[in-house]
Amino acid sequence: MVDTIVEKDAIIVFEAENYASQTLNESRQWLSFSETNSESLSHNFADADLPHLDGASNGEYLEILPDTRTNHDEALIPGENFTDKPGEMAILSYPIYVTTPGRYYVWARAYSTGTEDNGMHIGLNGDWPESGQRLQFCKGKFAWTWSSQQRRPDNHCGDPTTLWIDIDKPGQHMLTVSMREDGTEIDKFILTQDKNYTPVGMGPSVTTYNAPELSERTALKDITHYYKILDANTYFTPNDASKEYFYFDEWRKAAAINAGKPDARNIFVRASYEVPAKLPSKALNMQLVTLSEIDGESSYRVFINDQLIGEFTNAETTIDYSENTFDLGLQSLKQGDTIHVEANAVTNGKIPEGDITAFSRGRWRALVLQHPLNKR
User: Fold this and answer.
1) Residue 33 lies in a domain
2) Which of 134, 214, 139, 211 is nearest to 178 (CA)?
3) Domain for residue 216, yes or no?
4) Which residues touch 11 (CB under 8 Å, ≥6 apart)?
5) 260 Cβ contact partners less than 8 Å away, ≥ 6 residues apart
6) Which of 340, 355, 358, 243 has its CA nearest to residue 295?
7) Are residues 177 and 316 in the same domain?
8) Domain check: are 158 and 265 in the same one?
9) Which CATH number is 292's domain given?
10) Which of 5, 20, 97, 304 has the most neighbouring CB atoms within 10 Å?
11) Neighbours of 221 (CB within 10 A)
12) Measured on CA atoms in the order 50, 55, 60, 62, is the torsion positive or negative?
């Protein structure tokens, strides 16, 4: 996958080899040259010069081959080794993301060894505006050289910053480069809104976006094919008798009981959720996800309205806060039904805490509504 090219502070910088696609390349193709690309270094296409890796940015560049017209004495064949029509041959595409629309002056870094291998066209979003045609390299022969000069009838070498593209709105755009003369070698591109800017050396660093790594889930790891996850904090509310004991453990993402209050021990604390209007017409499978605790094996009860549909007890564990998933089977729910989840705080007498033993806190994370596996 190619790097994502973005605009930063009204400048866009990218390596020529970082293209997303190459099209209309039946007659001429852009070939990548690098020390690691042995196939390109040993090619058998017509090519009047040796690779020019020394000084190439990122150690890589593109050349359009075969090169059958290196000077005026060799035949010019329109549509084969030359085209003055942009977008006709060997198109490179570069997706770019822009936040600052406006006029961008285009600079390209190229290596030219003659008068017939030093031109290309620049387009945008399928269009090839006059301002982006005939990018020309005259100076700096036999060296990597920057140019933003447009070839014109009265000035074949052009003047600096006479080649540009206008990006009229922010968002994703497709910058395109097409062949004008075969044998052209390109290394790097810069688009800038600063008309007075002139790049030196290899130019600035590329402006690419590196997305942060996605965080993997640390909770509800075994839950799949769900219709809805009713997490304890968002969907459930303690009833009046339970409010003073119920709290949400933010660190462990679980409902919990304040077992520091003696009268909260060995009783069931209830939290409830009222079913809204929109639910699948068919029955859903229910699962309760709880957390094991080393200081006690809490029990849980689940009701729909006043009907008990399941009761469970955490198994004894040596791993604190590991998830347990208890299956409640298929349940048909309708608007206005109330689901109650109850938990208790108990001790197994194994974890000292001052002159008593520690109590588990009846932690549970969510009630999950699942699509039945055979009815997805």
Assistant:
1) yes
2) 134
3) no
4) 190, 191, 192, 193, 194, 204, 207
5) none
6) 358
7) no
8) no
9) 2.60.120.260
10) 5
11) 11
12) negative
Q: Give me the residue label for tokens 């001052």.
A: 354
For 2, residues 6+ apart whose C-beta sits below 8 A from its C-beta are 18, 19, 20
Average pLDDT rounded to a whole number, residues 323-350: 96
291: containing domain: 226-375
Structure tokens at 314: 């955490």
Q: Which CATH number belongs to the domain containing residue 73 in this structure?
A: 2.60.120.1620
Q: Are residues 205 and 233 in the same domain?
A: no
Question: Where is the domain boundary, 145, 175, 209?
Answer: 209
Determine if the peptide bond prior to 280 is cis (ω within 30°).
no
Give 300's contacts (C-beta < 8 A, 6+ positions apart): 288, 290, 311, 312, 313, 314, 326, 341, 342, 343, 344, 362, 364
Q: How far apart are CA 287 and CA 326, in angstroms?
A: 5
Q: What does the alpha-carbon distance between residue 158 and residue 145 come to, in Å, rounded to a whole number?
A: 15
Length of the chain: 376
On average, the pLDDT of the chain sits at: 94
pLDDT > 80? residue 108? yes
Per-residue model confidence as pLDDT tens digits over 15-63: 999 999 999 999 999 999 998 887 788 888 999 889 999 999 999 999 9
Whether residue 11 sits in one domain with residue 135: yes
Question: How many domains in the chain?
Answer: 2
